[in-house]
Fold:
Amino acid sequence: MARPDDLTSRKRFDGVLTGPELATARAAGLDLAYCPLQQGWVALGAAEDGETGPPLSWHVGRLPLFKQMPGWPVHPQPESLTLRVWVEDDLPAYRALLSDPSLWTWMLEDRPRQLDDDTCRALIALSTEGTHHKVRVATLAGQPVGQVRLEYGADPGTGELSYWLGAPARGKGLGRQMVARFLDRLAARRPDIRRITARVHPENRASIRLLQACGFTPCDRDRLGLAPRGRDDGSWLGFLRQSG
Structure:
């Protein structure tokens, strides 16, 4: 049976409380909140490590976009690199980052023809919608600097990693820190995902070094099952990180 001390040390995204844990928390008078992202009750005893998400939602059509609520800071540690969900307040920074042509040099997707507020708002909403992927924005000193994403594979326990970093944050080791932290948290919260692939343009040497530093090894594309996609015509390099 869970002890109250164990529950107060849990963070919001360590998972929702089970029935017995919820009963223990209520009996002990612990502060609780309902998390709409995980659709369950969580304890509020532990400080979050930068991955907080406010409890309200804002809608673009039928797509939810999370909005900051007064008293619930989105940036609890402004001096360190943090990972969290995108929120409505990030819209100006998100648009500025995506408007930089250099960001799209090695991207798998083509740059959208139009990058107005409505388009960027819809893209943010898509990043928070659905169960097919996990997306986190990396912030530094409270400002978004990049994004990391895992698209869950058709086979259980697999996924494909992708990421990007804004020009002002490049060349400082922040991309490696962003990806490493994302993967560490993924391993702790989704230990069932043991096989992660990535694809990189052969001329993107910085991204190749980043993946190798984060435990990925070059691998034959046929073995990885990486079919041509987007701007990848089949010539991009395949990488694999496998555990267990």
In short: Residues 46-64, 73-78 have pLDDT under 50 and may be disordered. The two ends are 29 Å apart (CA to CA). The helical segments are 4-8, 19-27, 91-98, 117-128, 174-189, 205-213, 221-224.
